Amino acid sequence: MDTRDRLIESARELLWERGYVGTSPKAIQAHSGVGQGSMYHHFTGKPDLALAAINRSAEELRERAEVAFATPGTPFERITAYFRREREVLKGCPIGRLTQDPDVMADPELRKPVQETFTWLTGRLADLLAEALEDTVDAHATAPALVAVLQGGYVLARAAGSADVHTRAVDGALGLLAGYVAKEGN
Amino acid sequence: MDTRDRLIESARELLWERGYVGTSPKAIQAHSGVGQGSMYHHFTGKPDLALAAINRSAEELRERAEVAFATPGTPFERITAYFRREREVLKGCPIGRLTQDPDVMADPELRKPVQETFTWLTGRLADLLAEALEDTVDAHATAPALVAVLQGGYVLARAAGSADVHTRAVDGALGLLAGYVAKEGN
DNA sequence: GTCTATAGTGTGATAGAC
DNA sequence: GTCTATCACACTATAGAC
User: Keywords on this record (chains A, B) (predicted)?
Assistant: First the structure.
């Protein structure tokens, strides 16, 4: 891993743990072992490095989601696979947490990957739900509800200090969904 | 409103907008019009003032929830009233957002009101759900799922820059719930 | 109770040597 | 590419006068 990469990975880690406002260039340097001058050689400043880090995290989220969605089975089984996938619940969502960062939301460049990630994920899920539910219920409203369960589950888990609530929330959501799943042909 | 109160109200506002890490004592002083010395007379420091602000916000959240829950009607109607209640969606949840603040979660005193608020809300909702659903589905898992929809809805709305997604997520969740509501005796 | 002064540390970046 | 030096400003307080 070269210097540039180490900076991005450290930024990703710290952004995840402490957010944009809570992460200083100095902290990134200390975490990565890269010096001041070196960092400013590779990136114009904190926002530039953060953008690279956010983009990489967004890409990773998408890839991991696609892996779960590619599980063999019915659409409902593929949705379930995604929701039950392993997660670092207590650390929260590396993209979702940025939503609470005033400086990220205020900067269109930093905000864009966050916005696009959720638009993509919600759309992807809506398609699967449309297949799974076959008009028993509105996929266009159900998709954001499900994504919200995941994101809100992180909030509850962090508040409680335990991953259990996230699991329960997912169980609850899938439990509700189950009753609407088209019984045949999937 | 006296000086102490003005400080608490300003801290509440800024904590809501910028979080704990992103809010400086100086900013609170500027926002409230209270001087440096005055602030440190009334509070021992930033954590002390933040605690007062968080406690007040937590109390307010509870009171507002109880107002909605007290709506006349069936348990499902009371739950619906709570979920459809007016919200400053794009500002997010003043308590839920603290969950992403590393310094809040690291301080047991600051964290406690956050934890208790969600424990209370989830429990309250579980009781109403148990009445509304009458064992058609597990209220113990459904309650955190619903709270998560609310919290996650804020995340989606902020990411999208529009309150619509929050509304859709709530619609989706209530739509799923509707099919399980006990049809008589409520 | 409120004010001003002061202080030590951190932030985010620039400059220029190597 | 990487290093050290330096900078102007912000952060979070403390001290002591009024």
Answer: DNA-binding, Transcription, Transcription regulation
Count A/B contacts: CB-CB distance under 8 Å: 199
HSE-CB for B154 with a 13 A CA cutoff: 28
Residue B171 near residue A141 (C-beta atoms within 8 A): yes
Domains along chain A with CATH numbers: 3-178 (1.10.357.10)
Assess A123–B contact: CB distance below 8 Å, yes or no.
no
Task: Pick the residue from chain A with its C-alpha nearest to B175.
Answer: A137
Chain B residues whose CB is inside 8 A of the A140 CB are 168
* Nucleic strand D near CB of residue A3 (< 7 Å): yes
**Residues in A touching B170 (Cβ below 8 Å):** 145
Vertex A131 angle, CA A129 and A134, to 5°: 90
**What is d(CA A64, CA B146) in angstroms, rounded to the nearest whole number?**
25
Q: Rounded to whole angstroms, what are the CA distances from B132 to B78, B96, B107, B182?
A: 10, 26, 38, 6
How confident is the model over A77-125, as pLDDT tens digits?
A: 999 999 999 999 999 999 999 999 999 999 999 999 999 999 999 999 9
- Integer distance in angstroms from CA B46 to C1' D15? 19
Interacting residues of B95 by C-beta distance below 8 A, sequence separation 6+ = B54, B57, B58, B61, B113, B114, B117, B118
Q: Indicate the length of chain B as a whole number.
A: 186
* Residue A165 C-alpha, separation from nearest chain B C-alpha, in angstroms: 7
Q: Taking residues A138-144, what's their average pLDDT?
A: 97
